[in-house]
Batch of 4 targets.
Target 1
Amino acid sequence: MAKEFKRSVCPYDCPDTCGLLVEVEEGKALRVKGDPEHPFTRGFLCPKMHHYEKTVHSPLRLTSPLLRTGPKGMGHFRPISWKEAIAYIATRWQKIIKQYGAEAILPYSYAGTMGLVQRNSGHPFFHRLGASRLDRTICAPAKDAGWKAVMGQTATPHPAEVKDSDLVILWGINAVATNIHFLPLVKEAQKKGARVWLIETYKTHTAAHADQVFLVRPGTDGALALGLMHLLVKENLINQEFLNKHVQGFDKFKEEILSSFTPTKASQLTGLSEQTIYAMARTFGRSRAPFIRLGAGLSRYGNGAMSTRLIVCLPALVGAYEKKGGGCFPGTFTAEAFPLQEFLHEDFLGKKTRLINMNQLGEALNNLADPPVQSLYVYHSNPAAVAPDQNQVLKSLGREDLFTIVHERFLTDTALYADLVLPATSSLEHPDLYRAYGSYCIQLAQAIIPPVGESKANWDVFSLLAEALGFAEPFFKQTSTEVISFLLSLPAPFRQGIDTDALMAGRPVEIPVSPIAKHTYRTPSGKIEILNPSENYPLPCYLPPYHGEFPLRLMTAPSLFALNSSFRERDELRQREKGMFLLMHPQDAAARALRDEDRVWAYNRLGEVKFTLRITPRVPPGVVVAEGIWWLAHCPGPRSVNALTSSRLTDQGRGSTFYDNTVEVRLA
Ligand code: SF4
């Protein structure tokens, strides 16, 4: 068969959702490149996906179901058939259900694949089973909560609006690592004369794209927003007409910030000088259309929702939300593109079962609550590496009486603890529907190569399990393709006006956002709600981050060469990263008599993790940074970074607090 390029989509948890062109020959992916026709990603890929074919055809791919033959965590397995595997799960689960009830079974998944069908395949199945439900809040629900508190369901601008801004603020986003396709748009604004600021906790690779970098103490972004708003009011840089017409509660808020949040206070909290805060406020207030690209990082502190809320208020004071090129862009909300509820089938739940927060997996499995979790089914996720409080998670995965099934492409840290490992397809081997969260693009991807080995897609495995457990609903007998057709057949006003033929042909398609008018604020009052009476704090205010007992604040930041724990199967990407480093300021290193390249332990009450030390002025004093999540097999010590992160939750949204931890460091 001749070589040909076929269209696909990057399935990983990244706002860009790149369009791919995959060269295929005789059922193998030979190479992958960006699709130049994609309106947002425009033909280039990040380094992670550049050789996706090496992931797809990696010699480490799992190719048959595996049954554990040795102690948990040791990775001793023997191959078995799919028939045996499905029958084994059904028998074990029937026993568990008989003894403890179905709530003793817990699914665990997040966003290993972002395709709507494969990502969500387990929902209808586990609802029908009556299993415990997982509160899927590991990413940035606090950011959503903060946005919604002020803006409700208001649509966010088109990301390309940034080109018309004269002041672009990248706030808490390392775009080079997590939103690289936004940067060419920023560049266009810069060429037209816009200034670009980066507000961060350390100098990330994105700093090279900014005209000015402002480093704030971790968790004090809300204090900076308040200090700036105080000065905008004091220096009469606000847009009173806009505030009168479109903002609820500004007068009360104004009194509050004038009396209680001075630039001196903002300076003391953030570490920025008062002079800098004055200069920032004046530039912001005098800009025609300031545009904030808000990242998810700052919402992973205990005060994440409140910090987001304060930042979202900032453009309202100067009326930036009405200006072309102005406002705040936290990402796009494209959920309305497909009525997913019809697929998730909450109606299959006989009664509402208990909800277990995924950030507290260790506690949930170790506290033998009524009923104790007796079986864990993990799919496209790797909680042994990515969940907080790794020591507690690993201890729980080691429970001999916990029947663990892991459906994966690779023998991850979690799969090593499984009783049964099921081989999963990659995104090139199954069909799916995608919607981006950094642009308004949607796309349909077909399977373009056959499954590697005996691997199966999530949907297909849940169909087999449904059959084995005697579920009579015809719903579970559909194929993935039929489910996709069903989703596409449901009316969705949000998709109105799209090029349906292009979508069906697998081309990237953009939802037209021009009809979303300025001044259309989808909140209960129809206004931007600085004052929101339904919130615990009706007016936004400063909430401090976690006050840890150790002297250094630990930032668990994204890596350029991995996405959470994905891509760690690739030797060449790990080599480019060079190792698992802890970044530390020279002053902090000198105080501890540490030298560059030393092996060090970072520790706190939860655990200790060995790193190679990198001394750099890129991080400010009092902060240490660990980029990326490593598989245990590649770590310098027995644990990876999440042995240091806590399962505490955010102020709103029950989200993770990965950035809100403290440590001390000593020589190993
Ligand atoms: S990880 Fe993000 S930037 Fe990289 S190819 Fe996928 S969607 Fe594009």
Target 2
Amino acid sequence: MEQLKILLVYPNLMLVSLLPNNIALLSACLKKDGFDVRVFDTTLYKTTEKTNDEMRVERMQVRRFNIKDVGIEVKKQDVYEDFAKVVKEYKPDLIGVSVVDDTVEMGLSLIKKADCKNIPVVFGGVHATLNAEELIKKEQVDILCIGEGEEALIKLCNYFRDNLPYDYIKNLWIKKSNGTIIKNELRPPVNLNTLPFEDFSVFEKQRIFRPMQGKMLAMIPINFDRGCPFRCTFCDAPTLFDLYRERGFGYYRVKSIERIYEEMKYQTSRFPVSYFYFNSETFLSMPVKKLKEFAEMYSEFGLPFWCQTRIETITNEKIKILKEMNCDRISIGIEHGNEEFRKKMLHKNFTNKQAIEAFKILNKYNMKISVNNMIGFPDETRELVFDTINLNRKIKTDSVNGFVFQPYCGTYLRDYSIKKGYLSSDSTKIDNPIGSSVLNMPQLSKEEIEGFLRTFALYVQLPEKYYPKIKEAEQLNEKGNLVLEELREIFFDRYFK
Ligand code: B12
């Protein structure tokens, strides 16, 4: 029998370049079952004026870098025409599109503008899971995958190939020709230790490069776990956790060290990896004993790596181990500087004293740190933004990120924003975390938030004598732009040389 051809689509923001585990994992599962897989990835296409990273350079979060250093050229061709060509030439039997809130519009447009009428189209990813009722209404969507896709997609493709009815596959919502929708139950979560290794070979070769503070590095993401045990109100993780918990399933799982070792062996034998990106929402939540075991195993690789953790998990012992392992950079979410607001609104319970102590430990070991903060939370005021600035001033880091709060589908803070009238209930509009606020709030306007975003790093790093000038730079007008330019040069000279 002829091999069934599956086209996986990764609509993405321009040059948001870390390779995605989901597509690589789905590809590996499909190939293991004998399917032919091709990926259409929009990352290298010129789909917006500026890239996220260029905007982050403008906002003084990251150092200047050049994608051409590693031979990456942005594709000038029209992404929709190229996709239509791929569909026409490859003639897939089934198309699978992976979407988050920021990329769903592009995913829908790709399908609409190509000739996909006689090809079943499955949408999956966190947006499909958490905004299912709306997404299934779209004419481009035939099937939705709710939650995990590994087993559901394989079952679907096998049944499809064997001409078996596929109406009752768990995790899938199926739209029938008469418009009715069959909503199947969720299946239990997969065992992360037994999945096939991610297949990154489906991406173009240059896609392995990702900028990291001024350098382009060959980076492979290694997923340590799936889900997160914490309940931050701005994040999708608690909603995914609850979706599974309501059915009696535990969603948060951690891979074994042996499994992570095998994955790293596999990926380094296939790609010229120079850096690992450890994907775990709270890397240091593992006990010291496990971290030590991991460190011992990791000495065989010794490559620099990035990881992310929470303030509460930082101890002298753990950071010492990380440093010895060659950890290059650690990313930490403070998110907000006001203890009470952070606890009540974001459900993050650490104290400012704890944060300051944690950063002392990190500095003692000379760790490179990126700190993440958000501006424009519901109910936030100008004074509250200054609490975030002030806490960041008390800690020493080499990269300070001020992102804008976005009310992602399925999050608690999205519901809260709607309840407070800051967002209309039918709005699924989301901007980039490097973009603009989508909330309409009387006490902190979109323009004020924008002003803070562009001057956040200046407020945090420059001496207070600059504050009157920085306030001028907040203004979104010609004068403000000129002052901002002047301060930016001072900033780059002092901190990013
Ligand atoms: C690693 C990561 C990244 C990586 C990789 C992105 C990726 N798509 O994998 C990078 C750094 C590139 C990234 C970028 C962005 N990210 Co991100 N990221 C994550 C993180 C921490 C883990 C994702 C992951 O690897 N999970 C493990 C994989 C295996 O799970 P999965 O992606 O959900 O895929 C499974 C199912 O959803 C399903 N599935 C997925 N796709 C498909 C397709 C088909 C056809 C089928 C059948 C099934 C299916 O099957 C998969 C296997 O079970 C999540 C947090 C989270 N809770 O998910 C945020 C998260 C996904 N990111 C988020 C955001 C906002 C972004 C950016 C928009 C940020 C930006 N402006 O740059 C971009 C968008 C890039 C993109 N096109 O996806 C949000 C999305 C919120 C939302 N509701 O839309 C999340 C949820 C974090 C949050 N704030 O809550 N991200």
Target 3
Amino acid sequence: MIRIDRDRLWRTLMELKQIGAYSDEATGLQGVRRLALTDADAEARRRCVEWMVEADLEVRVDRIGNVYATRPGRDRTLSCVLMGSHIDTVATGGAFDGTLGVLGGIEVMRTLNDAGIQTLRDIEVGFFTEEEGVRFGTDMLGSAVTAGRIPLDHAHKLTDADGKSVKEELVRIGFDGPAPERRPVPHAYLECHIEQGPLLAEAGVDIGIVQGVQSISWQRLTVRGEAAHAGTTPIGSRHDAGLVAASVVVEARRMCDSGEFGQLRATVGNFDIGEGQTNVIPHRAVITVDLRNPDDALMTAAEQHLAGYVDRLAGQHGVRIAWERMAKTVMVPFDARIQDLLAATADDLGLPYVRAMSGAGHDAQEIAAICPTAMVFVAGENAGISHTPREYSNPDACGNGTDVLANAVLRLANEADEPVS
Ligand SMILES: [Zn+2]
């Protein structure tokens, strides 16, 4: 078994945290704001490329700005083992989401170098463009283009709130690479990522072996009612868009509590009733509905129930309602053989683990479409809270997760055959 250098990994994590650092008013902590293809992202990308070059890796950039770095194996005709994740963050990000998998991957390469280990297959570490979807509106963008789910041309034309396109910004920051976005198919893909949830901490373990990523549905709901005087309009003759939107919020929660839809999670994270005038009945409301479910059939049932509920509300209150689909992904199961290989690796390292579904979306769910894929989760403190500067995984948890990654990658990179899985 090999062991990565925990101090070196931690120093790297803390160094990258300084790029895009901001002082967060809500928490009083230093956070990270490194939206995809901004100047901060560009600086972090350049720093990672420097680390890759220092580790003697061959770096290439593809046409959607994904960056890969290769450590050659003995037989370069064989497909590689790929590690990766992302280094872009949300506007209120922390130091671990995504970066642990990328910097952990670079640390694996350094460790292999230090140990003088040559593998049979090439090993690559990479990072994917715009995983968070915060700037250009589509999450897992770079990995989805690589996996062929989103055409390159479509991705290039996506724009941010200021009308700047992905393509323009790739060119501007110098990451509009020449490598084909449909990369050579890897032997396997492994992603080490913080859990962003409480399950590992509750189980008292640092390591999770991820079974898959649950189905995600994002919809936008626009309610059109009628503005009217708050004092003179009788309750029975109102067309209150705000009331209808609020009812959806409450129903979404009731659906979760009912147990009818399995492990459904529903969130209305955006609630806009326009001008917000104290003495006027809201005539328009826009909300987003985020549904998550590890079961596709129950997800469909939840969407249908909500649509029916909203229809009834529209009739009852005399309002017009429009749904807009923002995103939908089905449940993605990870490769069973690689999950077992990760479990065996954790056992050999003496690290206890649990198996868990992922509640969040990850690049791995896209790459799973092209090659056998699995993920290692690392526990976080404060119930695994993430997308906030409070996000924190301690040096031991990060080190343990990266040790599992390192040894699993080593095993996969010495596999001669393409196993059927
Ligand atoms: Zn992430």
Target 4
Amino acid sequence: MTEIPLQQHIAPSGEQMTVRDLASCPPPERWHDWVEYDAKAWPRKVERHYEIIPTVCFNCEAACGLLAYIDKETGRVKRFEGNPYHPGSRGRNCAKGPATINQVNDPERILYPLKRVGKRGEGKWVRTTWDEVLDTFASKIHAAIVEGRRNEVMYHVGRPGHDGYMERVLGAWGVDGHNSHTNVCSSSARFGYHIWCGIDRPSPDHANARFILLISSHLETGHYFNPQAQRIIEGKMKGAKLAVMDPRLSNTASMADYWLPTWPGSEAAVLLAMARVILVEKLYNREYLRRWVNWQEFLAASLPVPQTGFPNVEQTFDCFVELLIDLYDEYTPAFAAKESGLSEEIIVDIARQIGHAGTAFAAHTWRAATAGNLGGWQVSRALWFLSVLTGSIGTPGGTAPNAWNKFVPAPFRKPSPTEVWNELLFPHEYPLANYEMSILLPYFLREGRGKLAAYFTRVYNPVWTNPDGTSWIEALTNEQQIELHAALTPVWSETAWYADYVLPMGMGSERHDLMSQETHAARWIGFRQPVLRVYKERHGEPVTFTYQANPGEIWEEDEFWIELSWRIDPDGSLGIRTYFESPYHPGQKLTIEEYYRWMFENSVPGLSAAAAKENLTPLEYMRTYGAFEIPQEQAPVYTLNERELKAAELEGALVDERTGRIARNGTTIGVMIDGKACEGFPTPSRKLELYSSTLKDWGWPEYAIPGYTRSHVHRSAINHERGEYLLLPTFRLPTLIHTRSGNAKWLYEISNANPVWIHPGDAERIGVETGDLVRITTEIGYYVNRAWVTEGIRPGIVACSHHLGRWRLETGLGTDRWASALVSLGRDCDGIWRMRYVEGIRPFESDDPDSSRIFWREGGVHQNLTFAVHPDPVSGMHCWHQKVRAEPAHAGDRYGDVSVDTGKAYQVYQDWLAMSRPQRNRPDGLRRPLWMIRPYRPATSAFKRTS
Ligand code: SF4
């Protein structure tokens, strides 16, 4: 290709720049002084000088690299672009990355710590100091710890944004207080993976795949959206075929070779039918199954075959395969077609293509079907079954357990795990819950199972995000149940409104964090840093705390927790302070720079050498480039189960003759495979557990092998003639971020409505057209939204994105006015909660002239308030899909109306709780299988019930 010279572009060397140069990022050697003409000064040529400092995007979990362009004249960030030195995102971002600049400059943002002065939820706030906040919480937490009320301290996180930091803080405090958003997000998907291989997330190597199967809309919105989307397209460009299972014609489905619009909840039936085709047609990887599946345990368990009963089979591999075919005999293509609505031919065709792709079959599911349905975890379990059959676990072009493509450096001094167990998080009803039973907290508090002395919500908005948000309002306004609540948040939220303190925390460019995600077959770390602080320090302005460099007094969590920990244990007598003392200057308070410096110097293979090559320290290297990929020779990424244990690891180890398990000091560390001592997988058998003794022993013997659970929204439960439909409320928009993009004007300009998708045939039956108001009635209430009639949704299903419908209760305070409607919200005399628009989104006056140019008026309708909790009895995941009635709006209904009966919501909670199988009186006394992971893991002794 011929390069076409353009007009001269500014460059220190004065050379002529070209199209190609202009398309590239400035080279790092010029990042300290990058010069551009000021576009607004055109046609005059006015130079602007920028310092470019890397950081990491905080607008979804993918952790893409960003470059902040800091204007040297104003000392402010001018814009954000992609960081080409970031191995995951490689210089590219989605719309939300550059929109970070909107969030930084948002005229509505919270600049100072605020303290409530009226009643909770009354909306009266005064500015307070960080000192006052720290002292208030330190004394409350100190008292809880010394008085033995450790379970009354809880940290509840929505978007973690870092790896391991908070677990260390909570460990140092000795509390079992880590709560998360995960059971409204991914608990089910995780459980399906975890029960197979001991690791709870998948990492597909899309770029090298021959066939890709996605169950959700990854290209446009899915997990690790931008980094994985890049690699899916690369795989396609190299010839891979793409199939997308999604009831909605997402942008992803529209790019696929095969769109598989299954009836929601039938996905596992389809995947098991594909597995059966692969088995029957001998397309499976025989050697892989023989070596790595726990088939001996499977045979020893003598599972009954439907119709024929208990088989009497020889304990051989061939008999195992025959039995497997018998066990899955009912999953014929015809059965799967009946359940899903797909054709038998397409099911067989895709199964064969997966079989032929072999070890280059990449597959992924996250949220989507797993998050919508009762038994959603069977979907990820059945999907992994296909990966196992093809032997594509952790192979080039296959799908690895995520821990193989992720790197979390160890910090200095790890606290001992706490001896306490918090039943508010892991109650006896849900011993296998993959994450905390977060959605049930309001009911547990109401039932007197505990109370909270100090509650932190961090980038978490349960009032808006969780099902049955009004029950959250009832809990958050009860000062007996929650004595002190701080909302640590970068943006106003519906939940912060009910807090005692609203504590402004930084965006991705205003804080430190260390990130590593399974974006592809590699291991990398990304360093999020407060760019204005780095800029000031480079220019000789010392900064003690990050809030001194950020706008107003916006702080960062990392420093907040160090300060708080020192105040909880000022003299070190509780043994807490020691974890927050400098590893370089004993006895002195740890600085945030020292925390990361120590990890970069000691815990990241290859970083010191890479830094030395450029005459930099490891910390300087990370401050300069913002990311580092661990060399594969130091951290390999493929087939790690095959790693041979070293002689030192085997010293003192014993091998169990029957199972091949290798154990040392009572801990299983590997497995013998064909005479070789291999690391294997972190499961009880160290193999892939097709047969799960855990499920059998913990109350669910019928789920001992992958199966199909009929969803609570199975087709047979929906009667269209009675106006019933399945509501799919889980889909994401590529341009919004759940609950914290209300401060990004560009994003709301693009996406500002969430109409209800309805198929033309259904619209005719209901009697609505696009734009008409439609009432959607759930089991506990209803909402009123506009209809959007489209063939992009399966008949019988209506769908509504969960991203929109933000609200505020005061004219000029609360959730950003770019995004929120002013509403009235309260209980009627009949006890029913009602929300009604007082005023939609309107232009407003501010320092940003764009705020007076807002043209959108309806900001969407909130639907999660009208959903009761549906905790899956095994995984604990909230099952989002709803059976609803869809009908034209009633007389008097208005756009945005919401009505909820929390009494009914409590009844539904009890109905679902009754489906659990409590494990309180086990002979071994365990609360939970010891091998199963927990985000914060207490000591082994805490797993044993003492009363
Ligand atoms: S994919 Fe996520 S991390 Fe990457 S730029 Fe978009 S919002 Fe930021």
